[in-house]
Predict the structure.
Amino acid sequence: ILNVEQSPQSLHVQEGDSTNFTCSFPSSNFYALHWYRWETAKSPEALFVMTLNGDEKKKGRISATLNTKEGYSYLYIKGSQPEDSATYLCARNQGGKLIFGQGTELSVKP
Amino acid sequence: DSGVTQTPKHLITATGQRVTLRCSPRSGDLSVYWYQQSLDQGLQFLIQYYNGEERAKGNILERFSAQQFPDLHSELNLSSLELGDSALYFCASSSTGGLGTEAFFGQGTRLTVV
């Protein structure tokens, strides 16, 4: 993998569903992996920054894991709510450059 | 409110013109990043400054330049504008620009070139 890739591109779930998305990145020369939440008409907001292989972080119903050896991170949302609707971005820190993936657009229907 | 201020919020200008976008980082943050988001594109990294010096460079066009001033605010200068330069330009700041430091984004400047 040469770039930061996110899947799926979009996701439509019902309120109460749990969901997860994937961020894949080059595993060589890893420094840090960031997750951001980007609501329409707002600016991206940091969720997590992870640096160590095996890191797990949690904020409320949202959690993330990191595997630096195989180059992936998962973001989980438990019991999705309509207010979780947003684009979720991951970014790999490459020596100061934050390189973003294209994002996963999540839509949660009431 | 992230604490990062970008001005102006909207800018409409003609092809061939030059514009300056301004960013004031969060109080105490030394590092500033600039990103471009064009239609249907993700956030494209342009350039990073740390305490007044250029630290990292992305695919920034030669027509674009940036600087960070002693008071740590930053300006992105876009010249000889083309229609394709129409985009949302974001500035972000972080405390050190270090590996595990989260970045805080401004509200963006929407540039429209006509």
In short: The interface with chain A takes residues 2, 4, 33, 35, 42-43, 45, 48, 50, 55-56, 58, 90, 92, 97, 99-108 of chain B (CB under 8 Å).
